[in-house]
Amino acid sequence: MAKKEEKNSIIEICPIRNVVARFGNKWALLVIFVLNENNPSRFNQLAKLIPDISTKVLSNTLHTLEADGLVKRTVFPQVPIKVEYELTETGKSLVPIILSLTEWAQKNMKTIMKHRKNFTSSSK
């Protein structure tokens, strides 16, 4: 039983599993990138700027980013209710890393796609 507890504690303190995995999914990096360009933004504005994301996934992504302190949600007491999302300082600190990753992806995409094609062809 002690082994299982020890294993869980290692997982909990692992930065990749505990932190990076939370914003490293398909949509979170894009939401952060779009918020950086359009800060602050309302939900519908984000949905229009990322047209292929469902409202449920956008809502869940914003919720996760807010829970991790990367996005701040502000509710304005008016009718109808106005809600805006913006990057926190922690969220803003992630932007240069996303930009570097994007640059790397653009630089290496052709090579990666070639390898994927060759791998798929050789796997058959």
Description of the molecule:
The N and C termini lie far apart (43 Å). Helices cover 69% and strands 11% of the residues. 12% of the residues are buried. The model has no long low-confidence stretch (mean pLDDT 88). α3 packs across α6. It has 124 residues and is mostly helical. Strands 1-3-2 form a 3-stranded antiparallel β-sheet.
List the helices and strands and how they pair.
Elements: H1 2-13, H2 15-23, H3 28-37, E1 41-42, H4 43-49, H5 55-67, E2 71-76, E3 82-87, H6 89-123
Antiparallel strand pairs: 1-3, 2-3
Helix pairs in contact: 3-6
Q: Order of strands in the sheet with the most strands?
A: 1-3-2
Largest sheet, in brief, is:
3 strands, antiparallel
Element-by-element helix/strand order: HHHEHHEEH
Strand element count: 3
Keywords:
three-stranded antiparallel sheet; mainly alpha; 124 residues
Task: Write a compact overview of the structure shown.
This is Helix-turn-helix transcriptional regulator. By secondary structure, this protein is mainly alpha-helical.
